[in-house]
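Final report, closing paragraph on structural work. Over the funding period we assembled a curated collection of sequence-structure pairs, and we close with a single example.
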Amino acid sequence: MQQYLISSGQNDFIKCGSPVMNRFPFLSIKNATFVIYPRNMIPVKLSNTSQSDIVAMGTRLIKAMKDSGYEYLMLNRGVNSVVNIDLNSIIQSIDFNTSDIQVYPSGNGKAELRKAINEEYFNNQALPEHILITAGGISGLDICLQNIRVDKVWLPPLFWGTYSQLMNLRELATESYPEYDWLLKNAARLSGNAVIICDPGNPAGEKLPDEQLLELIKKLDKQGVVVIFDSPYRRLFYDRSDILYQQLMQLEMVVIIESFSKSVGLSGQRIGFMYNQNKKFIDGASLRLMYATNGINAFAQTIITKLLATPEGQKVVTDFKKITIQHIAANIEFLKQNRLLANELYKSTQPLGIFVVVNRSPEELFQHRIGSVGLDYFTLKSFKGMENLSRILVSYPHEKFVSFFRTIL
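Its predicted structure, as stored:
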């Protein structure tokens, strides 16, 4: 129902919600309900969003642990949990008593960080002034969605639930595409629209071969479709020899959204970056970013610069990735061997991580003290059997992961 705020002439506000029609005969809306807001209550603009199912499950797990005294696996979260990245050697090299740490950073990000990103991701071929430092992946996505003018935003068939919440928040029309082949066949009619591609995916952790991915993105770009390439998980599995970003940066309609939350395990620092070749897009995004953040945390920028641009930092990142990938692969293999993987979702792809979908419901997993999230949070369209599937994190210590899942077998 459309929402209204109307002055009653009695220093109150009314909004659709409870019956008061007889008090306001001048209102002619049929079957309407109203709520009276006292004059000292701030009229609130609806966000059109709701609490994340991921957060809701986390709250439930914390309560269950407190009440029972037993440990529960927090596999509902998107937090690499095999090991923490070892920052001790990096922290020792930072002087905290400098204006570089204590004063407002540049609105677009520190020059040395943008230089390090250019070298790490783009082999020094990108335009440094087009690299914008953001407050994590969600910040980059939100700035991008505010900055584009499109008819509709198309989401993957299964997607990070926050995508649809952002669409609601920014009042953007949205729909989901059924599969990558559908995008290839319908690229021409999607001109004037935007498509979000997340690879490896969330919630299924599926990985499309890069040659197929690049073919699809190039075709969409050629047809005038805005491609938002949101890939916060990719660089956990790849290093600077990866050339995909160098190939994507040349495409005018492609916006690259990256995050350091997963690739180096620093979700708590809230930092990522955005890149696009088009100056007009970057200029607009830069202004929106400035007025949304007034600069990104200088400490976080300094840490990431050290990790990307110094030998000791690069070693720390390599060590973190190596052990994390080993445990992810072992956990996925265990799920495969014990027929716990939802194989119907991996017909033309392979699960890479950091998430997978298993063929158990969230409630069944919860009874075995395993946190997860139901697939209804990750799709616009329900399908048969969906209620018996759950997304779980597989970036978790292998022995403990196995010890909990063996109780299901």
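Residues 88-312 form a domain with the Aspartate Aminotransferase; domain 2 fold (CATH 3.40.640.10). The CA atoms of residues 130 and 250 lie 12 Å apart. We thank the funder for supporting this effort.
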